[in-house]
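To illustrate the input format used throughout this study, we show a single complete record. The first block contains the structure-token representation of the backbone; no residue identities are included at this stage. The design step must infer an amino acid for every position from geometry alone.
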């Protein structure tokens, strides 16, 4: 049984990491990562091959489509860009868990035709997962059902970004205020569509509040694993200082309830600082 956990990045100044091969070090702490850098530009195959070389075959990348596809072209007339991107990430092999289609907040239920056409034409040898931010998808039952039908036809998953804990009370730090301005305030979603659910969860600066807020998610993940699903959970905080430890803590909490879950690797020690 597998539970994959990870963060929004594989390097952070506050994390215990060596000066080189930071991804290899990160992969000794977590077994999944959100690949946000691909949103800004399609990486070269050589760069992606280096990512693969630093991670074991069972490591999961959830790679975000470039913004030219999702935000600038809004999924229309992007066949060349999509195929170029999929070719670039090919060196990941089995590590490429899902292609992450994060849509802008302005992408509304009236745009579902573009998503349906995109998923219909997308190569079938990849798994796709969609994140929407328009509030109608969370507040209007018809809009939600229509989106689910589009995703179901392509065997794609709906990625929820759970910001409930973040917005539970007013921010008390710069990082929390910044997150309040940037993160979507949408209803919590617990329904999954495939055998590979993906959830993004953001807490607060307080570790205790973050852990208290994910209790429902622990129960859900235990249930999904009992159903034979293979979930991937990404843990965020406003500044992500504690995200690495929180990801391992979440995994340990689930593993305590489901001992058959495969363990995480043992973290490698960071290199001691040198003068040269």
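Output of the design step:
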């Amino acid at each position: 049984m597998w539970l994959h956990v990870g963060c929004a990045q594989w390097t952070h100044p506050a994390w215990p990491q060596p000066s080189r091969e930071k991804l290899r070090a990160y992969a000794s702490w977590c077994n999944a990562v959100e690949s946000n850098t691909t949103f800004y530009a399609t990486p070269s195959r050589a760069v992606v091959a280096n990512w693969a070389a630093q991670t074991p075959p069972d490591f999961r990348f959830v790679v975000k489509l470039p913004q030219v596809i999702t935000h600038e072209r809004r999924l229309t007339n992007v066949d060349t860009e999509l195929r170029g991107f999929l070719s670039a990430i090919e060196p990941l092999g089995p590590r490429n868990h899902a292609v992450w289609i994060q849509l802008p907040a302005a992408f509304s239920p009236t745009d579902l035709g573009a998503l349906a056409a995109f998923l219909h034409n997308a190569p079938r040898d990849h798994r796709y997962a969609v994140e929407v931010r328009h509030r109608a998808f969370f507040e209007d039952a018809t809009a939600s059902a229509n989106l689910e039908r589009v995703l179901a036809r392509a065997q794609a998953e709906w990625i929820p970004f759970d910001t409930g804990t973040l917005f539970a009370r007013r921010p008390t730090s710069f990082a929390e205020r910044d997150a309040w301005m940037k993160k979507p305030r949408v209803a919590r979603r617990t329904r999954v569509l495939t055998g590979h659910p993906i959830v993004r969860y953001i807490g607060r600066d307080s570790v205790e509040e973050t852990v208290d807020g994910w209790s429902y998610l622990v129960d859900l993940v235990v249930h999904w694993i009992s159903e034979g699903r293979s979930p991937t959970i990404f843990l965020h905080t406003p500044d992500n200082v504690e995200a690495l430890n929180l990801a391992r803590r979440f995994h340990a909490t689930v593993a305590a309830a489901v001992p058959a879950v495969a363990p995480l690797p043992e973290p490698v020690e960071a290199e001691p600082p040198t003068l040269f």
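Structural context for interpreting the output: The chain is about 35% helix and 15% strand. The radius of gyration is 18 Å.
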